[in-house]
Each structure stands twice: as C-alpha cells, then as structure tokens.
Amino acid sequence: MLAKRIQPMVFQARRLYVELMFQVMGRALQAVSEIDSAVQKEARALPDGFLFEMMVMPDGSRLIVEHTGNGRFHYHGDSAPRPVDLSIQFKHIAHAFLVLSFQEKTSVAFANDRMLVDGDISYAIRMTRVLNRLETFILPKLVAKRAVKEYPSNLHLPEKLLSAARIYLKVATHFVETVRA
Amino acid sequence: MTNQYYEFFCPVKVIAGKAALEHIPYELTGLAAKRPMIVTDKGVRAAGLLDPVVAACEESGLEIISIYDDVPPDSSTDVVRDIAGIYRSEKCDSIIAVGGGSAIDTAKAVNILVSEGGDDIAAYSGAGVIKHPLKPFLVVPTTAGTGSEVTSVAVITDTTKSVKLPFTSSFLLPNAAVIDPRMTLTLPPHITAATAMDAMTHATEAFTCMAKNPLSDAYATAAVKKISTSLLQVMDNPKDSDGRLELAQASTMAGIAFSNSMVGLVHALGHATGAICHLPHGLCMSLYLPYVLEYNLESIRAPLGELLLYLEGPDVYSATPASRRAEASISALRKLRDELHKRCKLPRTLKETGSVEEHQLDTIAEMAMDDGAMMFNPKEVSLEDARAVLKRAWA
C-alpha cells in the first residue's frame, strides 16, 4: 500500500534526476571540449555544425550539443536549432536512469539494447568515447569504473583532479549564467 | 538480482537439407506469390547454381518471371534502382536471392524499394526507417559464411557520395532461408575455407563479446562444433554433401547468433582492412581471430575456455586444466588455420596476403576505431591497442 503511494514520487524523482544529469552532462561536454586535447581530437573528426542529441523516448528529457568547430562543443539545452545529425535514444526513462545513475555502463546499455542510434554509427562510437573520457574526469574513480568499460590506467590523480575542478567550475558558471539570463 | 537483460529475434523459417530447393514453390505459394524474380550474380549463374532453383520452380508450375544476374561484388544504389525498375516493369510480386552476401544485400535493398516505393534507396538508410512488412522474399545462400540470410542488415554503396549506406530493419529478414547442400558443393577450396572461418568468427565473437546471451550462445556453440568437425573433412573431400550441409547450417546458426549478440574487434579490424586493402571479408576474419582473442584473453577467459569443448571435443576438454582452456581454444583455432594454409594457402598473417603494405596498418587501426563493432568488444580498445594487434597480425 505504502509502496503504491510512494511510486508516483519515485517516478517523479527519477525523471528529475535524469533531467538534471542531462543538464550537467551537456554543460560538462562543452566544458571538457574546452580543456582536454584528447576530447578535442575526437571532436575534430565531426563536421562543423554537427548536432548531437541524447534523449529519452518517446519525447522525454534530452541534451543537445553542437560541434562548433576545432573540437569545441556548445550546449544547446533541450532544443535543437535544426534537425539533429546523431541521436542516441534511451527506449525508456528507466534505462536512462540505470546508465545515468551508473548502475549500467554505457557500452553495456548498448549491448543490452537499452539504446538506439539514429545516425552515423561511427560518430556514435566517437561520441561514446568522448562521454567515457568525460566520465573518467568528473566521477570518482570507484564510480567511473562502473560507468566506463575500462578505466584508463594512464589517468593519474593530479590530472584527474585538476581537470574535474576545471570542468565543474565551468559547469557551475554556465548554470549561473543560464539562471541570470 | 543482476542487471542482465537481452533480446533475441529470428523469425526466418529455415528450410535445410536434401531437396530443400524443391520447397521454394510451396513456400512462395503460401505467401500468395506467383511471379518471383531471381536476384543473383554472374558467378552463380556460370557455376550452374541457378539451374536447380529454376528447375525446382518450373517443375511445380511456378514460372520465374525475371532473372537479374549482374549483381557486382560491391553492390550500389544504381544497381538496386535498376533491379527495382525491372521488378516493376515485369510485374513481379516476390524476390528470390541466390548468392553470397552481395546478392542477398542487394535483394534486401530492392525489396525495400519495390515495397515502399520510390527510386532513391538512400532515403531508407538507417535504423528503423522501414515500418511495414515487405514483399515475399526467399534467400538461397551459395556460400557458407556470411549468415546474411538471417541478418536484418544490408549495406549498399552510394556511388554518387562514395559512402556505404547501412539499412537496418527486422523487415529486411527473408520469409525463409533455403539451405541446400547442392548450392555449396562446387565452392572452390579457398572460398570454402575463408567463408567457414567467417562463420567461425561470427560464432566465436558472438560467444565472447558483450551482448552474448543464453539463446545466441546455444547457436554459437553448435556452429563452432559443426565447423570444427566438418571443415577439414570438406577440404579433403569437397564433394562431401553431408559435410557441406553441416557447414551451411553452421553459417546460418552463426548468423543467428551474431545478429542477436553482435561482434567485436575482429570485425572492426576486418571491415577496415576490407575497405582499405580490398581483402575478402572471410579471409580478414580468419587472419585476425587468434590475435584478437589473445588481446581480449583476460576479459573472456571463461567463455573462451568453454569453447574448447566445441572446438576440440570432450576428450581434449576434460584433459585440459580449466586454467589453460582459453589458451587451448586459441591454439585449436591456430591449428585449424595452419591446416587450412596447408590445404589452400589461406593466409594467416597480413604479410602472407601479399595485398597489405606495412605502412597501411596505422590507417586500418584509425578506421577500425570508428567501427560499430568496437562498442561490443569486451575489452576497451585504444588506438595504440589496435595498432599493437595489427603489428602482431602482420607477420
């Protein structure tokens, strides 16, 4: 009985969590592309103006980033200025929650058919590498190990902490700017 | 409770064995089809493989309305449009693909155009674009390796943009796959070996990569067992129709396995090598398989060790300590490749192919990094890792 009463609140909390995580990830993607040369190298292979979307089907939360050129991403929030070039779509919000709460690795979610790719698969692979790189920076090692297929052995603590601090600072600044605007 | 989850789908009716071709008229009639078109290539026609298919239909009073026998090895959007035009002008109502991967993929694409309408096949490229069942479609494979008869994917080259267009939809799957040993009886030894190793790789990667699941495992292990048992027998006695049927069934089973659990680094490297050096796909698979298994070893020790039972049989499996079974599986595959090299000079290294230059390895590695199969490899692969595997496979 109690569980039935709580259920709507749990669903609402899950929806809010996924929405918040998309907002953080979108801003963090922009931030990591400004500070990390490996991410910039990956992103340079994308066409200028390339729009990437990550969303929950059928019409749930989403994040949209654009490759503005020279390996830099720009976060557009949840609305795209034109049709997106690549969309990674979670089939259900429960699947998005599993991935964004680090209970299921992104690669495992793909393997488990939790997500669909609409667009060029090679760009999807590239964007997954960028997301993995971002997660290894911004998450504590123990959590990051649950999020990525393999935690990079050459990422040492000082580099991780410094990069994470710079990314979080940029994300916080962006949040403040959004609120002010 | 774990997070384990999987999906498995294969609605293709498999018609396999002696006189399987003679079931084609019955199957088409059951689908209300009366005017079939055959899509094939010149090699199949020259080998006389079309004759038993046509004879089986005519004997039952089913007239083949049109035969298109000019599918190139790397099919294009132009070819698909041309065939669709013939299909419409001849008022055909169904398609029979007779051939290997290219003929089957072309027929799948033609089926999209003639069912959905239009002349621009590129408009249907991507995943999930097709929303309705297509025209009745039968596949008669003439090689035992690709497994295309049970996969929901087709790849067609867009000649104007010089890109490969992928088409993915469960509606691409044929209504039936007809596996008749007569169709593979005349395959030359090197193609028999390469295509069988393609199927072996499909099964091995299906069993060891990230999307493995209990149902695909069952198909994969059965395929490995059939290939291990029959391949060398067929190489020594090409007219062994029972052995040929075993290989053809193994190919279909491996196709069902990998289309439901995907493949990994062997395919990523193989796709890139095929695109850059124009090596046959099956040859690339045979070439890279042991090197990739060695690279993945610590991530796949348990399933790879289990494969030893199907590669070498129960006696070797039980005599091998559990801790050494994974290595023994790789050794068994190396031994099989050595035997094939002895019999038909199937290359075991990139150098032995004579078609790859050492300076191309970096380009192959870079292209492989963006291949979709990379996602399902059980171990994360960096560019340096891919280069290292290629160096080991070089000589």
UniProtKB/TrEMBL annotation, chain A:
Superkingdom field: Bacteria
Protein name: SCP2 domain-containing protein
Organism for this UniProt entry: Marinobacter algicola DG893
TrEMBL record, chain B:
Keyword Transmembrane helix: no
Alphabetized CDD domains for the sequence: Fe-ADH-like
Keyword terms: NAD, Oxidoreductase
GO molecular function: metal ion binding; methanol dehydrogenase (NAD+) activity
PANTHER family: ALCOHOL DEHYDROGENASE, ALCOHOL DEHYDROGENASE 4
Family to which the UniProt record says this protein belongs: Belongs to the iron-containing alcohol dehydrogenase family.
Protein name per the record: Alcohol dehydrogenase
Classification lineage: Bacteria, Pseudomonadati, Pseudomonadota, Gammaproteobacteria, Pseudomonadales
